[in-house]
Amino acid sequence: MSRLQYHRTSPFSLPLNAGKPWVTSLGIWGVGVGTAALLFLSVTPIVKKGLLVNVPLLGSHYEDKTPASDKPF
């Protein structure tokens, strides 16, 4: 005759197991949305000065090299 055995499961195991198939897809979408946001916001001065100029390899591309005499304000 077989014995009845009870196995305890963690209350966190169901959400963790249910979310595993979505991790890769959400990661790819997150990178895509972040890249698109940087692309569209790269023309704003706040993003350009605060973030893009500080990137090591791309910083020189986003520096403002316009002479002060050519700036209207």
Automatic annotation (TrEMBL):
InterPro entries listed in its UniProt record: Cytochrome_b-c1_su10_fun
GO cellular component: mitochondrion
Membrane-spanning intervals of the chain: 22-41
Single biological process term from Gene Ontology: mitochondrial electron transport, ubiquinol to cytochrome c
Pfam families: QCR10
Keywords: Membrane, Transmembrane, Transmembrane helix
Protein name: Uncharacterized protein
